[in-house]
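In this supplementary section we document a worked example of the pipeline. Step one takes a protein sequence of length 118 as its only input; no multiple sequence alignment statistics are reported here. Step two produces a three-dimensional model, which step three serialises into structure tokens for compact storage. The input and output of this example are shown verbatim.
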Amino acid sequence: QVQVVESGGGLVQAGGSLRLSCAASGRTFSTYRLGWFRQIPGNERELVAAITSARRTYHADSVKGRFTISRDNVQNTVFLQMDSLKPEDTAVYYCAADPSDSGSYVYWGQGTQVTVSS
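The serialised model returned by step three reads:
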């Protein structure tokens, strides 16, 4: 069982920055694919960014150039640096781990609220 715990959400003004962190357990963390998702009430959960075990990254078009995903395999942590935040970025952000690095996210965190005020 892999435990996934997010932190770093909060309230920020438009144009500001936040850094989300996600700690995932497991001795084979370096082999995981990790993703950040977000969900607005009434909407489907959407993939915001992902990073593979080989450190290939994906960023959704809506956040490209503003958000950056990275990982630290020593600390077993994945980060989401969010800059130039917009009110439409307001959502609950979830971290997920995919031990098979295949795109099938199995383990999820509890979510952290990000609120961007205009």
